[in-house]
Amino acid sequence: MNIFTEHPNQISETYLQHMKKALTFSFKLLGMSCQALLHAFFPFLFVSTVSEKIKSMNDVLQNRKDKS
Question: Which of 67, 42, 64, 34 is nearest to 53 (CA)?
Answer without folding.
Answer: 34
